[in-house]
Amino acid sequence: MLNKASELFGINVFNDSVMKERLPEDVYSALKSTMKEGKTIDSGIADTVAAAMKDWALEKGATHFTHWFQPMTGITAEKHDSFISPTEDGNIIMEFSGKELIKGEPDASSFPSGGLRATFEARGYTAWDPSSYAFVKDETLCIPTAFCSYSGEALDKKTPLLRSMEAINKQALRIIRLFGHTEVKRVNVTVGPEQEYFLVDRQVYEKRPDLVFCGRTLIGSMPPKGQEMDDHYFGVLKPRVAAFMRELDAELWKMGVLAKTEHNEVAPAQHELAPVFTTANIAADHNQLTMEMMKKIALRHGFVCLLHEKPFEGVNGSGKHNNWSLSTDNGINFLKPGKTPDKNPLFLLSLAAIIKAVDEHQELLRISVATAGNDHRLGTNEAPPAIISIFLGEELTDILKDIAKGIHHDNTERINMNVGADIIPAIRKDNTDRNRTSPFAFTGNKFEFRMLGSSSSISDANVMLNTMVAEVFSEFADRLEKSDNINEEINCIVKEVIENNGRIIFNGDGYSKEWKEEAQRRGLLNLESTVDALPLLKSEKNIEMFEKHKVLNRAEINSRVDIILENYSKILHIEALTLIDMMNREVIPAITAYTDSLCTAVLNKNSIGGINSSVERELIARLSAANNEIFSLTGELKMAVSSAERSRDVFEKAKEYHDIILKNMCDIRKYADSAESVMPSDYWPYPSYGELLFSN
Ligand code: ADP
Ligand code: MG
Predict the structure, then answer these.
(1) Euclidean distance between CA atoms 561 and 101, whole angstroms
(2) What number does the ligand 1 atom closest to the CA of 335 have?
(3) What CATH class is the domain 567-693?
(4) Which of 1, 161, 407, 654 gives a 20 to 30 Å CA spacing to 48?
(5) What residue owns the CA closest to ligand 1's atom 19?
């Protein structure tokens, strides 16, 4: 297996060793410094790189090239051009210029721009991102690119991510220099996103219009067996699932994705893939590729891969864990506590910066994971609540508290408890260290942000994290650069942060009711839905911060809020129409047909005489009542959708969808599910949860 992996790994990537082999030395080193230090590419070398890339791609069987970009739809987009170019003698040659490598002009007027591009200049530009390797996929050379408007405004997920990485690099360099590390040229954000997903049998899936159109079930009553036995978690893989995972790993390895761990998750039919961490930009690209390949390869094995955050009510949904840290180009991890964390000022300062950033910008983390799908998941006793808090573990919290109190910390005991592995801090790994209920947890040498939805791009979350922490680092650097006793000043900073921002630290059970109340007492935000969260992105405080660090300007922020809210409404619109259709055309007629057959049974029994038909009568009464409710609620839902669609204001519209339509859909579901639970399966028009969850 290992052999196979090493043979496959990166064979379809124009990676460092390929570049070294195929590029002239000066071009190679120019490109490398661009990649390493984030410098702008010199157009002179682009032609040479393009030619080498093309020759390499042709050898890999590529016939086309595409600028591979990530518009605000959250998925990737491609526009394929072939390499062919006619010659005078009527033949063709394969061509690819530096200009084509650096810049593309997709006809992109139909990508969401939130009003950034007026239609008269509906052109969008894609620009090569040399910090992420080009690769071959489906006979196409894919060039990772950023996507922006004519005047340079970001229209995608990558551009702000790259800008935010620049912002944090700049501020983190100031910090690391204070500790005498003048050799450091760059501080990278490292990210490892763990990805959850469901696999369901394709034939069963295709009989469910709600899954086909919405990616989640809109109705469905619970099967007799759910996840209560916990027998799926890390259970033995079924052969068809194992075959899928093996092929997925192999395909990802070919494209240089460091797929590492594959296992079953808590819910039946749920699984997880974790890659080895890499720089944030590459991690984001690779996560997009991973999601794409999951969907594609699932089909080859007779499955459909569901990336929706909540495909099944009453069953755990899917998320992503964004493991995040900061590392210098020579390998210093800012968040590695070492054996004596209390004597590690870089670690303590970084910890303080993150605590302050998360406390002061709670809403940004919540906003970064706000989608219609993820709203179903957060705060439902399976995923972190919508309240942001930080888990540090008792010992780390004690260290910070002691510093705040000015108590000298004796850590000899702790050293003795060092487990030995480098990555595990010299802090006791107590039970709470496995706290799964915290949205933002310190896990040894990184923070793990656990609120991301399974289908989202990880860019948004990392843009927020990077910018927030850059902001606090810049504030700390301003203070420390002026100070003549750095250690004392760091102590002051830690003390202040514990006093002012300590409320964000919570090591207890995030699912509990008590925490909700406690969080409210602490004044922490509880933004339950996308509609509650999104408007806060436009606050002056946030606009000022994003503009200061050149990550997003006011127009870009406004456009993003509009796009996200519009998207929210669109999703609910499709869901509502699907539900209306399912009720009118299948569920109502099915209930009618079954009650009809019950009526016939009653009549037959009556004609014989003396036979009890109370069961039939009771069922007729219950089902007719449910059907009546479904019928009238479906009518109401239709009217509510028309009313929402008339709304001109993006926010008002989203609010109508959230406040009225979502609730209406839940009501319909209640009656439909109760009908399903008493109807024979051959009368019910759709495969049950049992069939969906236990079909693989
Ligand atoms: P779990 O959360 O299930 O305990 P692991 O401890 O195996 O999982 O790690 C989860 C993820 O964290 C992996 O993708 C791993 O590569 C990533 N990770 C480890 N160290 C870092 C780091 N310094 N920066 C970012 N991600 C990291
Ligand atoms: Mg994890």
Answers:
(1) 32
(2) 23
(3) mainly alpha
(4) 161
(5) 277
pLDDT digits (tens, 9 = 90+) for 228-273: 656 666 667 789 999 999 999 999 999 999 999 888 877 889 999 9
Q: Which residues surround ligand 2, an ion (CB under 5 A)?
A: 194, 321
| Nearest protein Cα to ligand 1, atom 17 | 192
Max intra-chain CA distance, the chain: 102
pLDDT by residue (tens digit) across 624-665? 999 999 999 999 999 999 999 999 999 999 999 999 999 999
Is 333 near ligand 1, meaning CB less than 6 Å away? Answer: yes
Per-residue confidence band for 408, with pLDDT thresholds at 50, 70 and 90:
low
Our answer on whether the CB atom of 323 is closer than 6 Å to any ligand 1 atom is: yes
Mean pLDDT of the chain: 91
Average pLDDT for residues 290-317, to the nearest whole number?
A: 96
Q: From the CB of 438, is ligand 1 less than 6 Å away?
A: no
CATH superfamily label, 5-156: Glutamine synthetase, N-terminal domain (3.10.20.70)
Ligand 1 center to 192 CA (angstroms): 6
**Mode of pairing for the β-strands spanning 103-104 and 270-275:** unpaired
Q: Which of 552, 502, 549 lies closest to 524 in space, CA to CA?
A: 502
3-class secondary-structure state, position 136: strand
Class of domain 164-552: alpha beta
Q: Is 178 helix (H, G, I), strand (E, B) or coil?
A: helix
CA 324 to ligand 1 centroid distance, Å: 8
Whole-model pTM above 0.85?
yes
Q: 331: how many CB neighbours lie within 10 A of its CB?
A: 8
Atom of ligand 1 nearest to the CA of 261: 7
